[in-house]
Structures are given as structure tokens and as C-alpha cells.
């Protein structure tokens, strides 16, 4: 009996899982681990959203199969969100589908539109589903940079000129996970023009649309006139409303891609539990205080992280958006590599981070730090890290002051 399955063979070892397993063992043995590895929000959703979940769940007729494409009220609520936030009009019947989080939506769209051997352009480093969703579907990945600058478009032009077969899909995500880079509307205008010229579908991951800092809202690619001719965009309630475990996301935009995703989903799932979808309507249509509160919360944590880790001897560039910092390894320890450094940080400092190499080879030399612990715990992490750096012979500010 064959035990070497085609799609499983195409998946490399998930290196982030190594650190996760170490973290789990340490916690099971009673160690206090400050977990900055996974982007798992640590606060609850708004009370009125939980109340709506309970209200609908109490109805006897709410426990049957739901709608795979999403209940009509939720699709209308997402359309209304795009109208007020981005000034983009969406038809809730043909241009919106509800997904079980943006991750499921990306993976199922990959299955819907990808044939074995297709070439997909995806950022490196990137959130794993941006590449592995298509690898599982049989595609070949050609990497492009994450930096939304001139080098990005030079890479796109080279890919079109020299790749056989020509690329059919371009995947992007801004604010970026893991690098926290942001893109402006002028960038999206160039992407749309490029995609139309070369007949390439564009898949935009906008999961961190509401977590931006320094007063500069993040745009949507669908704000570009004509973008819906080539583009689809994924969003989620996970971070904006602290609803990660609820698994509610959306795909919106191009009707052809929405139709393909909707058809594949109809074979695979019956949609999220109806009370959860009803509560998601309450989140989108109700008071939006939590969105601003979460944005400010992550902003404060960003500032505490950058300041306290800097005093500990680890300089971290302040991210402009998202709930992550993309941190270069301390120069004196770059030789360890991101995986070994992450393991040592967990073992000797009790701090879990995600090794950058887990997001692609271009992530080597970095770790991703999630802003999912409170400010007191972030400062404790900095104190632990300072002691670790000193034990490794790194001249930290504190050590220099005591010299």
C-alpha cells in the first residue's frame, strides 16, 4: 500500500512547528513562557457580539446546516463595510463569499483555479498559505520580494519574461505577515495595470486592514478603478474584532473568482455555524469601538516592545502596521540562524518567537514577534532577553552602563 502521497511529498518540514512543540513541552513542565510566537489575539470580542451569538444559539432552529457562501445578512454587512471603509461598491450576491477565515478561503481558491504545473507568483517571505495553498494544488511557486518598491515590479517583469508557462496568479498581502510592510494606492494601481496587461489574477490578503499605526489607514486594491476585473481580496474578523477562533473571513471582488470559490466551497463545507455568522453581522454593523481600541492597543504594545527590547540590547524597527514586528537577529548572534536563535530564546529566556525561515528562505536572519502579550509581559520578556544576551557575551546597554 502506497504511503508516499503526492501532495504531502511536496510539503517541506514546517519549521515553526519545532518551536511550537518546544513551547508546549516547556509549558507542560510548568515553565512560564512568554508567547510572542503565534498571532493569537489575547482579548475577547465585544460583549454585544457574544450576546448575539448566545441569543441566536438559543433558538431551536439555529442548529442545522448553514449556508456555505454565507448567510445573506453577513454578505450584505461585508458589502456595507467596504462601502464605508474604502468607498468600494460590492454586489453581495455575486462579489462576496463568506469563508472559514481568510486562510481557508485562500486554500480553497487555490484548489479552484490552479492546475498542476501552473506558475504562481508569491512573496518571499510570506504567510505560509500564500505559497503552500498553491503547492498543495500542484502549482510551481516563483518568488517575488515583499517590498512594495521598484524591485518588486522588476521581479514581476522578469517573471513574465522568463517563466514557462507564464504566471497565471499573483498573491500579495499588505500589511504583510510576517514583515509588516505596507502598500499605498499608487502601488496597487501599478499592480492592477500589470495584471491586466499580462492577464494575471491578483489575490490580495488584507487580513490586517484595521491594524495600522501613525494615522495612515491601509488601502484596498479594490479602490483602484477596474481592479475587480482581475482582483479578489480576503479579509477577516480575527484581528480587528478579536474573533480569531470564530473563523469568519471573506473573499470579495472579481465575479469569476468568487464564483469559482463558491462552487468549490459548496462541495467542501456547509458554512460557519449560523449563530456565529449572525454574531459576525453584529460585529460589522454594530458599534466599531473595538476596532479603534484594538488598533491603539497594538500601537502601545509596539512602542513598549521597541523601547524595552532596545534597552535590552536588541534593536527592532517599529512596524507601521499589523500585530507583528519583523526583527533582525542581534548582529552578534546572526550566525545562529533564525531557528536556532528562536530555540535558544525559548530555552534560556522563556520567550517564544517565530523563526523567520519558516516564512521562506528570504526570512532567514529575522524572527517574527507577535504583539499578543500585555505591556507588563513585554517588559518582562525584554528583561529575560537582556540576561540571555549578556550570557552570550553581547554588550547590552545595561552591561555597558555597569562597566
Question: What's the quick description here?
Answer:
With 403 residues, the protein is α/β, with parallel strands linked by helices.
General description of the model:
The chain is of the alpha/beta class and 403 residues long. It is built from 14 helices and twelve strands. It starts with 5 loop residues before the first helix and ends with a helix. The mean pLDDT is 94.
Spell out the blueprint of helices and strands:
Elements: H1 6-9, H2 15-28, E1 34-35, H3 47-57, H4 72-86, E2 96-99, H5 101-113, E3 119-123, H6 128-136, E4 140-144, H7 150-162, E5 169-173, H8 185-198, E6 201-205, E7 231-236, E8 249-253, H9 255-268, H10 274-285, H11 289-312, E9 324-328, H12 337-349, E10 351-352, E11 354-355, E12 366-370, H13 375-391, H14 397-402
Radius of gyration, in angstroms, nearest whole number: 22 Å
Mean pLDDT: 94
- Please tally the β strands and state the result: 12
Give helix % range: 40-55%
The rough form would be described as globular
Provide a count of the helices.
14
Task: Sum up the structure in keywords.
single chain, 403 residues, alpha/beta, Aspartate Aminotransferase, domain 1, three-stranded antiparallel sheet, 44% helix
Amino acid at each position: 500500500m502506497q504511503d508516499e502521497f503526492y501532495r504531502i511529498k511536496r510539503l517541506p518540514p514546517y519549521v515553526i512547528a519545532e518551536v511550537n512543540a518546544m513551547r508546549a513541552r516547556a509549558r507542560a513542565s510548568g515553565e512560564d513562557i512568554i508567547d510572542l510566537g503565534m498571532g493569537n489575539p489575547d482579548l475577547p470580542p465585544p460583549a454585544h457580539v457574544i450576546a448575539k451569538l448566545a441569543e441566536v444559539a438559543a433558538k431551536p432552529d439555529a442548529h442545522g446546516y448553514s449556508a456555505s457562501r454565507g448567510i445573506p445578512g453577513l454578505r450584505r454587512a461585508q458589502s456595507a463595510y467596504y462601502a464605508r471603509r474604502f468607498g468600494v461598491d460590492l454586489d453581495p450576491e455575486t462579489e462576496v463569499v463568506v469563508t472559514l477565515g481568510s486562510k481557508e478561503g485562500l486554500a480553497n481558491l487555490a484548489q479552484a483555479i490552479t492546475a498542476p504545473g501552473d506558475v504562481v507568483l508569491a512573496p518571499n517571505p510570506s504567510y505560509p498559505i500564500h505559497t503552500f495553498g498553491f503547492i498543495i494544488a500542484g502549482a510551481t511557486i516563483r518568488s517575488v520580494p515583499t517590498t512594495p518598491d521598484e524591485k518588486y515590479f522588476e521581479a514581476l517583469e522578469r517573471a513574465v519574461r522568463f517563466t514557462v508557462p507564464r504566471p497565471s496568479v499573483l498573491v500579495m498581502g499588505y500589511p504583510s505577515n510576517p514583515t509588516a510592510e505596507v502598500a499605498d494606492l499608487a502601488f496597487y494601481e501599478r499592480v492592477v495595470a500589470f495584471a491586466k496587461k499580462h492577464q494575471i489574477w491578483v489575490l490580495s490578503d488584507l487580513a490586517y486592514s484595521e491594524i495600522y499605526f501613525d494615522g495612515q489607514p491601509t488601502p484596498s486594491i479594490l479602490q483602484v478603478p477596474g481592479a475587480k476585473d482581475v482582483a479578489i481580496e480576503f479579509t477577516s474578523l480575527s484581528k480587528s474584532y478579536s474573533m480569531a477562533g470564530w473563523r469568519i473571513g471573506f473573499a470579495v471582488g472579481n465575479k469569476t473568482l468568487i464564483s469559482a470559490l463558491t462552487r468549490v466551497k459548496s462541495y467542501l463545507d456547509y458554512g460557519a455555524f449560523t449563530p456565529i455568522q449572525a454574531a459576525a453581522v453584529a460585529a460589522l454593523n454594530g458599534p466599531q469601538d473595538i476596532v479603534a481600541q484594538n488598533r491603539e492597543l497594538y500601537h502601545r504594545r509596539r512602542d513598549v516592545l521597541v523601547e524595552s527590547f532596545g534597552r535590552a540590547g536588541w534593536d527592532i524597527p517599529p512596524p507601521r502596521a499589523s500585530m507583528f514586528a519583523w526583527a533582525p537577529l542581534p548582529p552578534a548572534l546572526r550566525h545562529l540562524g533564525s531557528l536556532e536563535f528562536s530555540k535558544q530564546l525559548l530555552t534560556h529566556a522563556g520567550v517564544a518567537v517565530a523563526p523567520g525561515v519558516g516564512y521562506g528562505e528570504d526570512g532567514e536572519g529575522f524572527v517574527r514577534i507577535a504583539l499578543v502579550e500585555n505591556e507588563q509581559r513585554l517588559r518582562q520578556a525584554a528583561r529575560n532577553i537582556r540576561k540571555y544576551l549578556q550570557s552570550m557575551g553581547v554588550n547590552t546597554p545595561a552591561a555597558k552602563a555597569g562597566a
